């Protein structure tokens, strides 16, 4: 059986390596490593203006899709004014992921949305975001130190896709975000929360595998969440 192909939407960032200082399409190696450990093939998907109009050109190629973490979502995508804490947005990436994510939902393509990706999943379903969680929860434990992951526990709904993919109802997770869900998008269900009430997992019960996690399962080699996506993509590929 051939390995399922998992597309991962890339970040667009200015980076430095060696003698170079360039704008690059990039992704932490942990995503592709997790996909490969699970028996899949990782395919980086750079922002593509043509695919915003014709997302099926890319989605026809892959068996599953990951909306990855990264920069703040532009508040214009959910018709809000920017908060002073919202910085470093990338409207081109937002438009690309909105197009791919929306079409993936229509096609019932297996979809995992990580951190920023979960926020995008909520926005493409018509929801909105809290632009700076510390203002509402009163602490910064979801991102205590920029550049370092915070560890905390989440409570997942019994029997939910999130609990099945995470392998339990009370996993310890790695977190690095300052935004979260405000108004929940249509067709989505909350399936996990942090102890402070922050929505940590959402899913679409009407589809075979659409899951958003506000934490970073790719940073935990013990996590089986990305493997769950790969397994579902493999099954979906066989059915197709």
Can you walk through the features of this model?
- The chain has 240 residues and is an alpha/beta fold.
- The chain has one domain (5-239): Class I glutamine amidotransferase (GATase) domain (Rossmann fold), CATH 3.40.50.880.
- 29% of the residues lie in helices and 26% in strands.
- It is built from eight helices and 13 strands.
- Strands 4-1-5-6-13-12-11-8-9 form a nine-stranded mixed β-sheet, with helices on both faces. It has a two-stranded antiparallel sheet with strand order 2-3. It has a two-stranded antiparallel ribbon with strand order 7-10.
- The longest helix has 17 residues, at 91-107.
- The two termini are 13 Å apart.
Layout of helices and strands, plus pairs?
Layout: E1 5-9, E2 11-17, E3 20-26, H1 29-37, E4 41-45, H2 49-53, H3 56-59, E5 64-67, H4 91-107, E6 111-114, H5 116-124, E7 129-130, H6 134-137, E8 150-156, H7 161-166, E9 172-175, E10 180-181, E11 189-194, E12 199-203, E13 210-213, H8 225-239
Parallel strand pairs: 1-4, 1-5, 5-6, 6-13
Antiparallel strand pairs: 2-3, 7-10, 8-9, 8-11, 11-12, 12-13
What keyword list fits this structure?
single chain; 240 residues; alpha/beta; nine-stranded mixed β-sheet; 26% strand
Quick overview:
The chain has 240 residues and is an alpha/beta fold. The chain has helices spanning 29-37, 49-53, 56-59, 91-107, 116-124, 134-137, 161-166, 225-239; strands at residues 5-9, 11-17, 20-26, 41-45, 64-67, 111-114, 129-130, 150-156, 172-175, 180-181, 189-194, 199-203, 210-213.
Q: Strand portion, in percent?
A: 25-35%
Report, as a whole number of angstroms, the end-to-end distance.
13 Å
- In the CATH scheme, what's the topology name? Rossmann fold
3D shape: globular
Enumerate the strands of the largest sheet in spatial order, edge to edge or round the barrel. Answer: 4-1-5-6-13-12-11-8-9
Q: What is the strand tally? A: 13
CATH architecture verdict: 3-Layer(aba) Sandwich
Radius of gyration (CA) equals 17 Å
Range of helix content: 25-40%
